[in-house]
Amino acid sequence: MNIASEDDILGLVGRFFPVDHPSLLLGRGDDCAVLKRNGPLAVTTDIFAEDTHFRRRYFTPFDIGFKAAAVNVSDVGASGASPSGLSIGLTLTGNEDEAWLSGFCEGMKAICDRFSLALSGGDLTKSSLVSVCVTAWGELPEALPRGLRRGAAREGDVIFLAGSAGLARLGLTRLEAARTTEEVEQVKKHWPKACTAHLRPEPLAFDGASLARFAVEHDAVDRIGLMDVSDGLARDLPRLLASRKTGLGADIVLPEEVLDGEILRHAEETGVDAPAFAFDGGEDYALVGTCPEDLWPALSQTLESPCRVLGRVRKGALTLNGKRPASAGFDHFSH
Amino acid sequence: MNIASEDDILGLVGRFFPVDHPSLLLGRGDDCAVLKRNGPLAVTTDIFAEDTHFRRRYFTPFDIGFKAAAVNVSDVGASGASPSGLSIGLTLTGNEDEAWLSGFCEGMKAICDRFSLALSGGDLTKSSLVSVCVTAWGELPEALPRGLRRGAAREGDVIFLAGSAGLARLGLTRLEAARTTEEVEQVKKHWPKACTAHLRPEPLAFDGASLARFAVEHDAVDRIGLMDVSDGLARDLPRLLASRKTGLGADIVLPEEVLDGEILRHAEETGVDAPAFAFDGGEDYALVGTCPEDLWPALSQTLESPCRVLGRVRKGALTLNGKRPASAGFDHFSH
To answer: Are A41 and B34 in contact (CB < 8 Å)?
Structure first.
């Protein structure tokens, strides 16, 4: 079945996403939706665009819907907020059929269901490429009115990572090299964790909200720093430490033993340095944070995701395993 | 000067939009911005995309920034909320220079200044066409927790229009026909009100918020219906009346005398029926609403914009000046 009109598309969306939701006072269908407010509201916007952030050659419609929502939920969680809703600006080409749109909605719904999110509304338009602009929000505790932020680090603080580093970059690298449907299937078979990390990243938003509660309970709202790793540790760590302003850095230790086996296999096959590859890699949507040394044992117990210490904050430049890192990460406008 | 990187672009944006704002607990620069909590929050998302909603041939960068913000602020106002902020997902081609970006920011800032809006954040990406996906929000009175909505009309209610109808469509029609820069300038000179209506529509959000206060004060929160006219009266009136569900319609009277002189001149030149042209025309961002007859005299006094009665709600189909309208409005996916 072909999708003939906006009304058809909205009808299909309605089969996946209920209009009423506990976090909404008014759902879709009017000029605006209305959100209940239970505290300060953390808001973020991220675009997920064809041929910039994904390719239809190896992203299924499910993957596109899933990841467009996931990257935004990750930002909400990294502020310490509990995600509660999102809206989407969806650009389609007009060639998407019902199966495509259903797959897209199912992928987005998987994230909405996991985090009990309302889809409050959005807009549809037509262009030559598919693009999904999501705005997502979540509630912060009253005692944490600005959320968990970057720039909270002081000398001696622990730098911790919750989640993994490098897998999503490996998935991107391998999937980009696959030119045919068969090659894509082979890559998905041989690099399953890397492909899943790139196609369907799991936002660690429950951990973000746990850290927010922990900060409030331990009277440490200005002493715990947090962000999600969207552009890679090499680029995001200086942001977490506000290095340009503070002059803070760290000796990051990322030994091969803590890296995923698929990354080590890739390094062996290609000759790249595995830790450097993982350190530069973006789009893992892990959480990276800082906290006072004495809070670390208790804090690490509150996290559900695997976590580890990357290093301690000190004055000076960032090093990785004893050396200055080569790369400065990724910029869509200068590559 | 060419814009080389995301950081350059963000730096430029920062020259126009302060990070701190009275409606924000935390401004741009972290994973999320944080909004202050002041009541139920009305939220809307609208995409403003090149070659679908605007053409660079006749939209200046200022016009693009202005209208992308204006159409969203119009939705917020049409729900009865006082607009307080927005975020943008901005897709650029990479060829925009500093002058272009400054013009864009100035246009958006004109709307932000008029309504005291915070730009809470956003995202940047690159594609072959410029596109602006805006999510905007505003605060509703606690006594109006679902806003002013469609579907509030009952038989005998007054249908009113605040603002004008048809000018934006005339601007679109004339500007689309202009093929060269010189022709565009001629059109802007000969059809100034129509061009301004299409390029820089004025959202009537102060009137929307006034109507919300009026509804609360007159204990009429479920008896005043309101929406903005984005797709034209022909398409939007049945939505306001929820005609499909209620079977409600009206005999709309739109005499030539109330239409703008530019519309009458266009009708004379081309032979189209002026009221039908205005009735079908979209993107005027006027407000159309319904209220009980006895409230109309007082309600009309609260509106700053020129307003008039279009008709009274009754059972049955919609007519325009005694005849069934020919068109059913515009759909991006079926044209």
So the answer is: yes
Residues B197 and B87 in one domain: no
Domain CATH number, residue B259? 3.90.650.10
Residues of A in contact with B7 (CB under 8 A): 331
Chain B positions touching A92 (Cβ under 8 A) are: 333
The tally of domains found in chain B comes to: 2
Give yes or no: residues A207 and A311 share one domain.
yes
Record: contact A31-B131, CB cut-off 8 A: no
The Cα angle at residue A170 between residues A244 and A73, in degrees rounded to 5: 65
Element (H, E) at B309: strand B307-315
- pLDDT, tens only, A194-241: 999 999 999 999 999 999 999 999 999 999 999 999 999 999 999 999
Nearest to A44 among B31, B140, B334 (CB): B31
Q: What is the pLDDT of residues A15-29, one digit of tens each?
A: 888 888 888 888 888
> Could you read off the pLDDT of B64-93 as tens digits, one per residue?
999 999 999 999 999 999 999 999 999 999
> Do both A135 and A174 map to the same domain?
no
DSSP string across A68-94: HHHHHHHHHHHTT-EEEEEEEEEEE-S
pLDDT at A14: 85
Which residue range(s) make up the domain with A41? 6-139
Q: Which residues of B touch A333 (CB under 8 A)?
A: 3-6, 8-9, 92, 94, 124, 126
N-terminal to C-terminal alpha carbon distance within chain A = 40
Which pLDDT belongs to residue B1?
Answer: 44
Regarding beta strands A131-139 and B24-26, do their DSSP bridges make them parallel or antiparallel, or are they unpaired? unpaired
Q: B176 lies in a domain?
A: yes
Window 63-102 of A: residues touching B by CB (8 A cutoff) are 75-76, 78-79, 81, 87-89, 91-92, 94
Residues 219-238 of A with CB under 8 A from B: 226-228
The answer to whether A123 contacts chain B (CB < 8 Å) is yes
Burial A45-55, CB ≥16 within 10 A → b, else e = bbbbbbeebbe
Asked if the C-beta of B20 comes within 8 angstroms of chain A's C-beta atoms, the answer is no
Name residue A321's amino acid.
Answer: N
- B94 and B133 share one domain: yes
Say yes or no to pLDDT of A334 above 70.
no
Q: Which of B104, B100, B90 is nearest to B134 (CA)?
A: B90
pLDDT higher than 70, residue A327: no
Q: Given its phi and psi angles, is residue A49 left (phi above 0), alpha (psi -120 to 50 degrees) or beta?
A: beta
A12 touches chain B (CB under 8 A): no
Closest CA in chain B for residue A34: B42
- Please report whether residue A335 resides in a domain: no
Question: A13 vs chain B: nearest CA distance in angstroms?
Answer: 15
Other CB atoms within 10 A of residue B231 CB: 18
